[in-house]
Structures are given as structure tokens and as C-alpha cells.
Amino acid sequence: MTRKIKMRIWRGNSETGSLQDVSVDANEGEVVLDVIHRVQATQMGDLAVRWNCKAGKCGSCSVEINGKPRLACMTQMASFAEDETITVTPLRAFPVIKDLVTDVSFNYKKAMEIPSFEPPADLKPGEARMQQIDVERSQEFRKCIECFLCQDTCHVIRDHEENKKSFAGPRFFIRIAELDMHPLDMLRNRKQKAQEEHGLGMCNITKCCTEVCPEHIRITDNAIIPMKERVVDVKYDPVRWLGSKIRRREEVL
Amino acid sequence: MERHNYDIVVIGAGGAGLRAAVEAREAGLRVAIICKSLFGKAHTVMAEGGVAASMGNVNENDGWKVHFRDTMRGGKFLNHYRMAELHAKESPDRVWELEVWGALFDRTAEGKISQRNFGGHEYPRLAHVGDRTGLELIRTMQQRIVALQQKDKRDHGNAESHIKVFAEVTVTEILKEGGKVAGVYGYRRENGVEVLFEAPAVVLATGGVGKTFKITSNSWEGTGDGHALALKAGGNLVDMEFLQFHPTGMVWPPSVRGLLVTESVRGDGGVLTNSDGIRFMFKYIPDVFKDKYADNEEEADRWYNDQTNNRRPPELLPRDEVARAINAEVKAGRGSPHGGVFLDVSKRLPADVIKKKLPSMWHQFMELANVDITKEAMEVGPTCHYVMGGVEVDPDTAAAVGVPGLFAAGEVAGGMHGSNRLGGNSLSDLLVFGRRAGLGAANYVKSAPAAKVSDESIKRAAEKIQAPFDRTGGENPYALHEELQELTQNLVGIIRTKSELQEAIEKIADIRKRIEKVSVSGDRQFNPGFHLSFDLDNMLLIAESTAKSAIVREESRGGHTRDDFPGMNPKWRQINNISSFTGKEIVVKQQDLPNMPAELFDLFDPHELEKYMTPEEMTKGGSK
Fold first, then answer.
1. Are residues A116 and A222 in the same domain?
2. Does A144 lie in the same domain as A55?
3. CA–CA gap between residue A54 and residue B543 (Å, rounded)
4. Is A119 found in the same domain as A19?
5. What's the pLDDT band for A125 if we cut at 50, 70, 90?
6. Phi, psi of A84 (to 5 degrees)
7. Would the pLDDT of A232 be above 80?
């Protein structure tokens, strides 16, 4: 069954761009990305949109659909009312390069700032032994497809360019949590660094990131809150605070 | 124009490319990684089932010899024996190394890396993370690159001093000077600016060709770029007639037609039935596999709990066999409502186990097809998934034959999988030969001085990029692509005949003439129509090479089925079809397949080899 759809698509860049109306066919079972591709092939040969797998696995086709951060490949046309106009715009938290394509280099810069996995120095290939239950916590965060929808929706940076410098964003909080909970990771103080260097404290747990995550990772409950609690423990528990200072002094000596 | 200088340029940022880059960096060289998309989005993320490596964590009888035998059997003995040997020997080390880099595979009860059953593998062999193993692999490699860059920042003050990732760059040409590789030319999609990379060595790691076909599991990137770049640079492609149609792609709704349904569904107990409710695979066990696969449901069912005393269910036959069987059922009118067959795991496993073992399948069917796989059957059918054919390389160094300075690894390289790849052998292939390509290129660079790219070469490359804008009123690249996909699907698809292949060759030649006139609108920046005009050129070379190889191979083997030559022919087992490009058209020549040395020959039961080899080969073959 084919029907005519009204769509409004962002064309151009941040400064000179505007919404353009199109009327286009949509077939039964299609997703928004299919319809965008039809617009490309029949009406706007140079319409820019990122996409790769078209299966919700690569996280490339992140856009905002009727104002909500979504993967275009996982948004069914059937989820809209018959006569609804579907508005597709680029991710708002990042500068627009052209049409629906944004400059997401912010995320790659932040990835570079997170200290990498540090295995035990004497770990030989094939010798690691870990229980399933112990790897599962980190595995949840490793499901992340880096669509950056959580980064886009996070109000700390969505309309606050000035916070970007000191705030890594939910994607990288789960990266830190993943490493912190990794049974083989030896680097200490990941949580403290999250607080002091990556802006964990700026998050006020409104859970917007969790809501938009296409992988249903419980970003706030399983990564951010546990890290915040532990940071607070160390910071405000006088015995643990003293303990951390003494240990640090021993390391210096 | 931007100008860069590197020791090695890696084209492609999937598993093979990143593994090559890591190896080259660790050898002390400066490496540029060119991604067609963003860093971390390569098609490797789509790999679901796992990475095959005979670690023996679940069944200690496993070892490289068993893996080698399975791989050769799966490829119907057309594999380059040396590649299959290196692959089987080295894949365990490559998997363990990922763990040292931070990968978190699922575990056995003893805490080792868990391994799962898969089609064609004698023992549970695939290291996995649920059904998102490819994502784990690419993320681990990506994070390994970042770790090396962080180290470079500490040691050299600049994170990009030795490895730099160039995302969203399209390569249009490999440049040669004096018969050797001298660099790479292309443009940045972000702003249309042309880029020259001068480098004495180039590693192709560009993946597959699926977008040449209409129904495919591949993303838009799978347009055979590396295959075509190698041809244009004077390299050869080996056995391009062998394409793997994965037996289980989604068939409904139309927008996801071709999207992969992981083989793990069958490995974990999923059964295939037709519209009569019959588990049809028992009818399709070929003679060569009769002693390894159960011929009745009772034994097949028992195998899941007792693999020592029972033969495997026929749903786990190699992919080519299952794809042909599904094709035959549908043709015979016993298909599902949307032209596939039924794949059901709901009757075998409880809902929570399905969600745990196959989370992304559950998700994919729920969100895209409104099917709950814990309660109902999936509809599946064959989809173009993988190309076994590829750049002819030296197995040990991954050096492309005939082009000094060019290397190839992963799906773009040929030979490793013979006529059919086993599931799980592609992730291990990426790691084993990605590393070898990085090493091969590094060793080459140490003895080969960089040549300067001439102004003339640059001018020619630049003109080619500009050409589609200078033409007006030509054909629409989208329409031509659709036409090509339609013809490959219908005439060069899963079942082939001489007359249809002849027709395909003629039609491809016609499209080739027409793409010379393709014109595009808009400007260079992020312009998919403009981009498609280059991809089309690559895909046409692939289609031509596939059709011309397919028409000469008068037998059916693995991913090449000829209706007019239904059986395997031992004479053809000894022959590789080698494609080269004259500048105008593809020429296919026959070349002898290298003989397996006696020590590898001896690993097989002679009665098995007799099914594939000529009597003369049998007398010459082993040491006994």
C-alpha cells in the first residue's frame, strides 16, 4: 500500500539553511530513512544524509524527527498519523555541515580524552579468566553504537556550547563506567577523573539520555548514578577521604 | 588540494584495515587510515555470530587442523591452502589479543572465552558477544587505535603524529609511478576538497560488493571499491563468480528485505520449515556431507545436548547448501507468504534465553517487522552477503600480485574461502590477514623508497573527479544503479545459466557506455548522487568480472550454481579464474590452483578427498 506523505526536510547549513516541504510516496513497512532515500533518488539528488547499515547497528543515521533525536532507520512510517507532516532536521547539539549531516567531531575529541583500557602488565593472551556475571555490567555499555543521540539530547550541551569544553557527555560516561567495571582494568580513580575532568558533576540525572538510547542502555541508572554515588562516598566520608590521601602519599614516597 | 605524506595508507576502517594499521604503527611507521564513513561505522559492525578460532575452550578436541579441514571443506577445496592454513593456525592468537586490548567476550563456566556452534564448524568454535560480535571487534580495534594515539601524544606531543584517521574521504584512484604504488587520490565529502596521499604502500581493506545486487545484507558502502581500485591499478581478481548468498535474510517488510538474520539462530536451535510445516533440510544433504549430518529429526534434536554421539542438524550445513535448499523450496511453491521460508527458534528455547542469546535479532524483528521471535517464526530467504572472490594476493604478506606496494586483506582479498566461506571465518580472516597486510606493507616500505607523485598523474586524477559536473543532461546515477542491481539479481544471481550470463555481459557493456555520460546536480559537498557516479563505475567492473568468470566456470560449486552444469567437476577444482582489466573491459584467464603440500593433504581422510579430486591428484597428493 502506497500513500503520499508530507515531509519537511532541513536543507543547507546552520546559517543559511531552511526547512523545505516535499511530497513523497511511502510504502507499507517503510522507515523514515527509506522515504528520505526516495526523496534523494527522485527529487533532491544531492540531499545529504548519513547512513550505513540500515539495521540500527551502526548508529550513522541519527537525526531529529519531529524534534526528537532518533535513528531514521528504526523509525517506522507507521508510527505517524496518516496526515501528519514529518519534520526531519539535523542533530541540534552539533554544527550542521549540510542538510541532515552534522559535524560530530566533538565526540571523537572526547573519546581521545578518556584514558584507555589498562590491562595487568603481566596478562598473557589466553590467560584471562572472568565470570559471565562480572563481564555483563561492562557488556551493557559496550552495546553502544555511537549514534550520539544521548549527546544530542543532553541539555548540558544541547543549547550550551560553552559547556562542551568541560563535559564529555553520556556516551563517554558509559565508556568510563565500562572501563571502571571492567574486571581486567587496572587504572585507578576513573570515577574521580570523571568527576574532576569530564564533567560528571554537571549531569543532574534527568535521564533524557536513557530515553533516547536505541540500544536501551540504562545510561543513568547503571553508569552515571553508580559513579556519582561512589565519588560522593570517597569525597565526603572522612575515613575514606583520609585513606585516599595516605595511599597517595605512599605512592609519592 | 590537500597533500599528505605517509609510510602506509590503509583504505578502509573495518576490522582488516584497523588491524593492519595497528600492526604497521607497532612496526614504527606512520599510517593514514581512510574511512568511507565515520570512524567506527564500517560494515564489520554488522557481523553477528562470532569469530572462529580453535581455542578449544568448549571442546578440547578442537585445534587448527580441525579448523583447517572445516574451512577447506566449506570452500569445496578451492581455497588457497596456505591462506586457510595460516588462518586456522593464527586465529586463536588474534582473538586472545583482542581480550588484552579490552574486548569482553561471553564466558564459559570456567571463565574462558565461550565458543558457539556454527554451520560447517565441527566443534563449538565461535567466540562471541551475544549476537553483536562485529561491534565488539570494531570497537575494540577503534579503541586500540585511540590508545596508540594517546601513547603517541605522550611520546611525541601529538596524538596524530603516527596514526591519523581521515573520515568520510572517498578514494577515486591508486596512483603509480614507475610501475610501483606512489599514493592515493580522492576527495573529502565534507567539503569536496581533493586530497593526495603520497605513500609507497597502500593496504586495501574495503570489504565487499553486495550493493551490486538488489537483495543484499550489505550497506551502501559495499560497492567493490577496493576490488575496482586494484583492477585499475593493474592487479588481478581471483574467482569473482563465487558470491555467498546468505540463506537467511529478512524478506518482509520490503524496506528491510535482505537484512541479515544471524546464523546463530540456527546454531542455537532454530529450525527451517516450509509452508507444509515440513523441516525440509533433511532432503538436501549432499553426498559429500552425508556422514556428518543427521538424516532424521530425532538424531538432529539429540545433537544439541550430545554432540559426541549424534550427527549435526542439516540446518547447520554450509551456507551455500542451505541457500540453494531455500531457493528450491520457494520455487516449488512451498514458500512463506512473502516468498521465503520459516525459521523458528521459539519452540526450542524459552523466551528469556532467546532474548539473552539473540538480543539484536529480537530487537530487529520486533522493531522492524513487528514479529516477536520468542513467540513466532521468522520469514527468511537468501540475500547477497559476501564475496569470496577478490584481489589475488600472496598469502604470507597479503601483497597484491602484480602491483608492487599494493596489499589487500579481508573481504576484498580472494582465495582464503575458496568457493564458499563458513560463518565466523570472516572476522578471523580480518584479524589474521589484516595483521599480515600491516606487517607485509611495513616490511615492504622499509626497503622501498617513496616515489613522488607526478603533476601529470595529479592532473588526470583531478579531471576525473570533476567530470560528472562538467556534463549536462546525462543519465541519473540512481536510475542506472537500479538497472544494474535488477540485472545482476536476475541474471547473475543465485542460480545461473549460460544464456542469461551472456545477456548480462551484454547489458553490463551497455550500461558501461551510458555511465560515461552520467551527470549530477548540486555541488561536491556531501552529494550522494555525485558519489554514486564513482561507486557505479566500481560496481560495473565487479558485475562484469562476476558474469565473465561465471560463464566460463562450467560446474556448480559453493557460491556458484549453474543450472546447466549442476555437479562439481574435479577439473574445475584445479582452476582459478583470474580477472584483469585492460582499461576497456575485463578479461578472464584460467590459472592453476596451487597444490596442497603433502603434510596438509595427509590431514584428510583420502575417501573424503576422492569426492573432490581427480585420480591423478589422489596418487600424487599425500605422503603415503
1. yes
2. no
3. 23
4. no
5. very high
6. -75, 135
7. no
Cross-chain residue pair A46–B523, CB shorter than 8 Å: yes
Residue B522 or B285, more confident: B285
| pLDDT score at B455 | 96
> Which of A13, A16, A94, A116 has the most B C-beta neighbours within 10 Å, making it the best mutation to test the interface with B?
A116
**Domain shared by A91 and A112, yes or no:** no
Domain end position, chosen among A79, A102, A125 = A102
Q: Which CATH class is domain B249-383?
A: alpha beta
The residue of chain A nearest to residue B259, with distances taken between CA atoms, is A55
Q: Which residues pair with B246 in a beta bridge?
A: B383
Residue A112 C-alpha cell reads as 581521545
CB contact under 8 Å between B107 and A125, yes or no, is: no
Locate cell 584481489: which residue? B391
Average pLDDT over residues B407-419: 98
Q: Which class does domain B468-592 fall in?
A: mainly alpha
Q: What is the pLDDT of residue A237?
A: 66
CATH number of the domain within which A69 lies: 3.10.20.30
pLDDT in tens, B383-396: 999 999 999 999 99
Cross-strand partners of B181? B176
Instruction: Tell me which residue has cell 565487499.
Output: B208
A24-73 confidence digits (pLDDT tens): 999 988 999 999 999 998 999 899 999 999 989 999 999 999 999 999 99
Q: Hey, what's the cell of B340?
A: 521465503
* Mutation to test the A interface, candidates B37, B62, B96, B104, most A Cβ within 10 Å: B104
Q: Given this chain, do its domains B249-383 and B468-592 carry the same CATH topology? A: no
Under a CB-based contact definition with an 8 Å cutoff, are residues B388 and B414 in contact?
Answer: yes
Is the same domain home to A65 and A132? Answer: no
Whether B364 sits inside 8 A of A56 (CB atoms) is yes
Q: How far apart are CA A84 and CA B476, in angstroms?
A: 31
What does the block give as the cell for A195?
568527576
Band the pLDDT of B504: cuts 50, 70, 90. Answer: very high
Tell me: the pLDDT tens digits for B542-551? 999 999 999 9
| Phi, psi of A22, deg, nearest 5 | -135, 155
H helices of B492-586, in order, are 498-515, 528-552, 570-573
Are residue A122 and residue A209 in the same domain, yes or no?
yes
User: In the prediction, which pLDDT does A246 show?
Assistant: 54
Question: Structural domain boundaries of chain B?
Answer: 249-383, 468-592, 597-624
A238/A136 same-domain check: yes
CATH number at residue A167: 1.10.1060.10
Residue A7 has pLDDT above 50, yes or no: yes
ipTM, 2 dp: 0.92
Give B427's contacts (C-beta < 8 A, 6+ positions apart): B15, B44, B47, B50, B51, B52, B133, B134, B137
Residue A188 and residue A193: Cα distance in Å, rounded?
9
Task: State the total domains in chain A.
Answer: 2
pLDDT confidence band for B622 (50 / 70 / 90): confident
Among B100, B107, B147, the residue with its CB nearest the CB of A116 is B147
At B432 the three-state DSSP class reads helix
Euclidean distance between CA atoms A180 and A183, whole angstroms: 8
Do residues A111 and A224 share a domain?
Answer: yes
Position A183 confidence tier, pLDDT thresholds 50, 70, 90 = very high
> Are the C-beta atoms of residues B288 and B299 closer than 8 Å to each other?
no
Q: What is the pLDDT of residue A241?
A: 58
A81 in the Ramachandran plot: left (φ > 0), alpha (ψ -120 to 50) or beta? beta
Alpha carbons B192 and B256: distance in angstroms, whole number:
31
**With bands split at pLDDT 50, 70 and 90, how would you rate the model's confidence at B267?**
confident
Residue A39's domain spans which residues? 2-102
DSSP classification of residue B420: -
Beta-bridge partner residues of B170: B187
Grid cell at residue B30:
606512520
